[in-house]
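Recall from the previous lesson that a structure prediction takes nothing but the amino acid sequence as input. Here we apply that procedure to Protein translation initiation factor 2 (IF-2) from Staphylococcus aureus. The sequence below is the only information supplied.
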Amino acid sequence: MVLFNMKAKLDTLKRFKDDAKEVAKGYECGITIENYNDLKEGDVIEAFEMVEIKR
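The prediction returns the following tokens.
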């Protein structure tokens, strides 16, 4: 599993050989993440954004 916070930047997103701006849930795609090259087949990628909630 690979976890990223929103400081990591998506470098490329492709659907088949075409560049894509978004890919619908359930469809395969290819991605590269800026300054990270250790993705392996079978990795699960989860992205999140931490938001501070003032009380």
